[in-house]
Design a protein that fits this description.
The chain is an alpha+beta fold. It is 41% helix and 26% strand. The chain has a six-stranded antiparallel beta sheet with strand order 1-2-3-4-5-6.
């Protein structure tokens, strides 16, 4: 009988601990949800401005779901959103495309800005969690290579020194990260070419 009472007591104590922990976790989530969302929004806004510094505002537009697969946005690469980059009069300067691409450690999320006449202003990384000292060097190694590029087709990763505008020099020891970002950029370009080119939307 004593053993049964002890088991019931221990089970009750465990239940109370679990209940309290669950309530506290829910409370912490509610408290931190809005600040986290706010910080994410700030990071996204900053990234938009970095790839379209001349824009006075950004307006999200609906994704063309039928065009995503044709652009290659399937499986490991996703187009998260598309925004118009607007001038002071509300005219469309171009587009900011947010892309998520599976890297070595986790999804890499970045924005890319493309003008109406086909200039890739650059890319800006919002979220990356790759290997320190390798893939995490994407900001300083890869990002500058996509600045002010005329769109002509797909970019390709090379392990050697880039000898053409279409080549992106890989991060040493981080080919997977390099390809994840480059392939993501290519998908964004394909979507722009198929749907957005010339300010169609």
């Amino acid at each position: 009988m004593t053993d049964i009472k002890t088991m019931i007591k221990n089970a009750f104590i465990l239940f109370v601990i679990t209940l309290v922990a669950g309530v506290l976790l829910g409370f912490v989530y509610q408290v931190t949800k809005e600040p986290i969302a706010y910080q994410n929004q700030l990071a996204e806004t900053k990234a938009n401005q970095e790839v379209f510094s001349e824009a006075q505002g950004f307006e999200e537009i609906e994704l063309d779901e039928s065009a995503l697969a044709a652009a290659g946005a399937t499986g490991s690469i996703e187009i998260v959103s598309v925004k118009k980059a607007l001038d002071a009069a509300g005219g469309t300067l171009g587009y900011v495309i947010q892309v998520s691409s599976s890297g070595y450690g986790d999804d890499i999320v970045f924005t890319m800005g493309i003008t109406n006449d086909g200039i890739l202003n650059g890319i800006s990384i919002i979220s990356i969690n790759e290997t320190p000292g390798l893939g995490m060097n994407a900001e300083k190694v890869l990002v500058p290579q996509f600045s002010s590029k005329t769109i002509f087709g797909n970019f390709e990763v090379t392990k050697n020194t880039a000898t053409a505008d279409s080549q992106i020099e890989a991060i040493s020891g981080a080919t997977i990260t390099s390809k994840a970002i480059t392939n993501g950029v290519n998908v964004g370009i394909a979507y722009w070419s198929n749907v957005l080119k010339g300010g169609q939307n």
